[in-house]
Write a structure and sequence with these properties.
The complex is a heterodimer. Chain A contains no helices and 11 strands. By secondary structure, chain A is an all-beta fold. The N and C termini of chain A lie far apart (about 40 Å). Chain B has strands spanning about 5, 10-15, 20-25, 30-35, 45-50, 55, 65-70, 75-80, 85-95, 105, 110-115. The termini of chain B are far apart. Chain B is an all-beta fold. Classes of the chains: A mainly beta, B mainly beta. Chains A and B meet through strand 4, strand 5 and strand 10 of A and strand 5, strand 9 and strand 10 of B.
């Protein structure tokens, strides 16, 4: 079983739709959760970072973490064509090492069409 | 220059060639990473240098050889690669020790094609 499972899609939605992206994980030691956005021909860029259960909102983006179910989500409201990208979830355990080792999901390809 | 830069952006090489990928970070970080990104697979961590010391070598074949001469520069030396090594190679940097809000910043990647 993979440590992090993410549906690769592709996901296609009309402009203005609410998008829901999800990841499940098996390692209960994961405490920090991230969403990265990767545009075509670019490297991933950090979109959201959270370390507690519940919701975190940033503009049109909401990150949700449910540690009891080992499930994280990213919601995009009023989606725009510029949101078209691959979305990667990532997570790590706290402390203990000299660097923050991240475990990534496979990424979900999202297309928002006008 | 800002952030993390990588050169070249595209590279085509034969299986007998020797080439090097270069990464430079302008963020004052002290840890650098090499990742491999293949189609339909999660990002694979290859190497980590923390405080200029290699702290992770994730079962990577010896035809990939990393070098970190200082905390701002990272190289990946390539020789006798295989076609299955064709992928996007990403460099990242972060500040360690890894606290609650440490973040890895990625470069744009080098698209490698092995013929």
């Amino acid at each position: 079983q993979k440590e992090v499972e993410q549906d690769p899609g592709p996901l296609s939605v009309p402009e203005g739709a609410i998008v829901s992206l999800n990841c499940t994980y098996s390692n209960s030691a994961f405490q920090y959760f991230m969403w990265y956005r990767q545009y075509s021909r670019k490297g991933p860029e950090l979109l959201m970072y959270t370390y507690s259960s519940g919701n975190k909102e940033d503009g049109r983006f909401t990150a949700q973490v449910d540690k009891s179910s080992k499930y994280i989500s990213l919601f995009i409201r009023d989606s725009q064509p510029s949101d078209s990208a691959t979305y990667l979830c990532a997570m790590r355990v706290p402390g203990g090492t000299s660097y923050g080792k991240l475990t990534f999901g496979q990424g979900t390809i999202l297309t928002v069409h006008p | 220059e800002t952030g993390v830069t990588q050169t070249p952006r595209h590279l085509v090489m034969g299986m007998t060639n020797k080439k090097s990928l270069k990464c430079e970070q302008h963020l004052g970080h002290n840890a650098m990473y090499w990742y491999k990104q293949s189609a339909k697979k999660p990002l694979e961590l290859m190497f980590v240098y923390s405080l200029e010391e290699r702290v992770e070598n994730n079962s990577v074949p010896s035809r990939f050889s990393p070098e970190c001469p200082n905390s701002s520069h990272l190289f990946l030396h390539l020789h006798t690669l295989q076609p299955e090594d064709s992928a996007l190679y990403l460099c990242a940097s972060s500040q360690v020790p890894a606290g609650g809000t440490d973040t890895q910043y990625f470069g744009p990647g080098t698209r490698l094609t092995v013929l």
